Amino acid sequence: MSGCEPGGSVGAFLCQAGQVLRAAAVEAPRQEARLLLAHAMGCRQEDLLRDPRAPVPPEAEALFRRSLAARARHAPMAYLLGEAGFWTLDLLCNPATLIPRADTETLVEAALEAFPERAAVRRVLDLGTGTGALLLAALAEFPEAFGVGVDRNPEAAALARANAARNGLADRAALLAGDWAGALAGRFDLVLSNPPYIETAAIPGLMPEVAGHEPALALDGGADGLEAYRALAAALPALLAEGGRAVLELGAGQREAVAALMEGAGLRTLGCRADLGGVPRALVLTAGR
């Protein structure tokens, strides 16, 4: 961090860190500087503002400098802080998984709308579970349910297990490494999935925090963005219990194409819930025409 002397004050570090982030075209540079320094010092942002002349301890300074340099290279804040909020959960995050997003909460809302009687859901499946966000949010809302989450990346499955324990849900969840539903038997009342759906050629044009840092395995939906949906269409008819529902996340403009794939596999579209931006985001399906 150019111009910041070792052993400097909180105020000096924040001022100069804000300049570094502003030069790197990071949005809200002052706020992000406070977040990074509070994380490094193990305190709240309000504590930094209360005493701007306080010295920054050497061990906190070292962590702050590393985090600041990474953020200036557009490493996502959630990876640097190691956590993110989703629904009612506090989730650990690392570069093995996508960062949970508010748009994905639309799938939880759609699931709750599909099952107004919470006790009706006993078995939940999350395909491509990542941090475990969707599965764990569903288990928090459906108290009688047991859930299975599957991810192709063993590191992601391990992180999801840690998140289940962190949120008091470890005894109601099995988090597995596997290729979609290949190793699963049995049927589920609710199947959730936020699959990779970005067209391969479009990934380099995404914001740098995503294109340069989030895992390509969880982003790349193939040439047309629909590769994972084809695998889901093949698997879902055998996974849904009678009266069961599947809720799939969609990318912008994918509603008609994904619905056609699912209906071609013998599923029936019940509706599609839009996110807060008005984008059709959560496609709700059931077995049978």
TrEMBL record:
Please verify whether the record's keywords include Methyltransferase.
Answer: yes
Broad EC category: transferase
- Reaction catalysis annotation: L-glutaminyl-[peptide chain release factor] + S-adenosyl-L-methionine = N(5)-methyl-L-glutaminyl-[peptide chain release factor] + S-adenosyl-L-homocysteine + H(+)
Positions with a binding annotation for S-adenosyl-L-methionine: G128, T129, G130, T131, G132, D151, W180, N194
Please state every residue range assigned to the domain named Methyltransferase small.
Answer: 112-201
Q: What is its EC number?
A: 2.1.1.297
Ranges for domain Release factor glutamine methyltransferase N-terminal: 16-82
* Database matches in Pfam families: MTS, PrmC_N
Q: At the top level of its lineage, which domain of life is listed?
A: Bacteria
In alphabetical order, the GO MF annotations are:
nucleic acid binding; peptide chain release factor N(5)-glutamine methyltransferase activity
Name the keywords, alphabetized: Methyltransferase, S-adenosyl-L-methionine, Transferase
For this protein, the record's SUPFAM superfamilies field holds: S-adenosyl-L-methionine-dependent methyltransferases
User: Which positions does UniProt annotate for substrate binding?
Assistant: N194, P195, P196, Y197
Q: Does the keyword S-adenosyl-L-methionine apply?
A: yes
Concerning InterPro entries, the annotation shows: DNA_methylase_N6_adenine_CS, HemK-like, N5-glutamine_MTase, PrmC_N, RF_methyltr_PrmC, SAM-dependent_MTases_sf, Small_mtfrase_dom
One GO biological process this protein is involved in is: methylation
Give the UniProt family note. Answer: Belongs to the protein N5-glutamine methyltransferase family. PrmC subfamily.
> Any idea what job this protein has?
Methylates the class 1 translation termination release factors RF1/PrfA and RF2/PrfB on the glutamine residue of the universally conserved GGQ motif.
What this protein is called in its record is: Release factor glutamine methyltransferase
Species, as recorded: Muricoccus nepalensis
Q: Which gene encodes it?
A: prmC
